């Protein structure tokens, strides 16, 4: 594909569709929503309003990092604190699909719906990519960001129209566009992170305390594996307690799984054979997190496992 031409076409298309109206988009800091933000900004300038919604499920320091990165690119991002709304929607929910549904509904119906109404925007710019659509249509995953493909009339249900300029691209194409748009390497080469964020890495109920545990573990894994060259790596919190011994006393504490995979486009994945020393170092750091006494390495390819646990 000629990506320079793709950019020109998408910019022209956004301008044509939107006319003189206002557009809003939610930036998560991942490569897809970052590319959409940069494309939208190129097409519309100040007529694109970009928000970062703090849903309590993001990685350590993410909101501040995203605002600062885009500020340096000349794009203003508003930080919206919606932590309470997401946490209360997730309270008591353990079923994986219900968890995803609670996040979708809170995001689109409550928080985003309100922001759209307040902003007067008639369009939502969204970073849906081809793999999202294919996997959702195939019933492999209920992606949080696929609505039209599932026959949901967003205009009627949520009151705005959705523009998806990346719907023809896979991840490798999105990264190419990111480089051409001049986004920093930190964004264009960033590993994928799911829409439901850390909630996709908590088996069982999502609580503030459990989020704090998986957030700390995520920071450790991302730091240790930054140079691994892997497609994606993560920490997952299981919903069980294991027996352990600490300070000469028996204790029951939580279990963290580390996952590190090779993949081309996330449709299939193979486990990375990490050096034993690296695994032991990660384990030492993970079991130093309060309330955690076991660290496991997941050897399962996709299929039969998915990449995320929820
Ligand atoms: P799975 O777990 O289905 O993940 O093997 C495939 C790839 O997609 C990411 N993923 C998501 N990305 N919204 C996203 O934007 C989602 O709801 C979502 N769920 C999974 C996952 O991290 C992996 O790269």
Q: Tell how many strands the DSSP assignment holds.
A: 9
Count of helical regions: 11
The percent of residues in helical segments reads 40-55%
Gap between N and C termini, in Å? 33 Å
Radius of gyration: 20 Å
Q: Uncertain regions: pLDDT < 50 for 5+ in a row?
A: none
User: What would you call the shape?
Assistant: globular
Order of helices and strands: HEHEHEHHEHHEHHHEEEHE
**What percent of residues are in strands?**
15-25%
Query: Which structural class do you get from the secondary structure elements?
Result: alpha/beta
Spatial ordering of strands, largest sheet: 3-2-1-4-5
* Biggest beta-sheet profile: 5 strands, parallel
Ligand identities:
xanthosine-5'-monophosphate
On the 0-100 scale, what is the average pLDDT? Answer: 93
Please explain how this structure is put together.
With 310 residues, the chain is of the alpha/beta class. The protein has eleven helices and nine strands. The chain has helices at 3-18, 31-44, 62-72, 83-90, 96-119, 130-137, 154-158, 171-180, 185-188, 208-224, 276-286; strands at residues 23-26, 48-54, 77-81, 123-125, 161-163, 232-246, 249-262, 270-271, 292-297. The strands form two sheets. The protein has a five-stranded parallel sheet with strand order 3-2-1-4-5, with helices on both faces. Strands 6, 7, 8 and 9 form a four-stranded mixed sheet that branches. Helix 3 links the parallel strand 2 and strand 3 (77-81). Helix 1 (3-18) packs across helix 2, helix 1 (3-18) crosses helix 8 and helix 10 packs antiparallel against helix 11. It is globular, with a radius of gyration of 20 Å. The two termini are 33 Å apart. The site of xanthosine-5'-monophosphate (XMP) has 15 residues, from loops. Xanthosine-5'-monophosphate (XMP) binds next to loops.
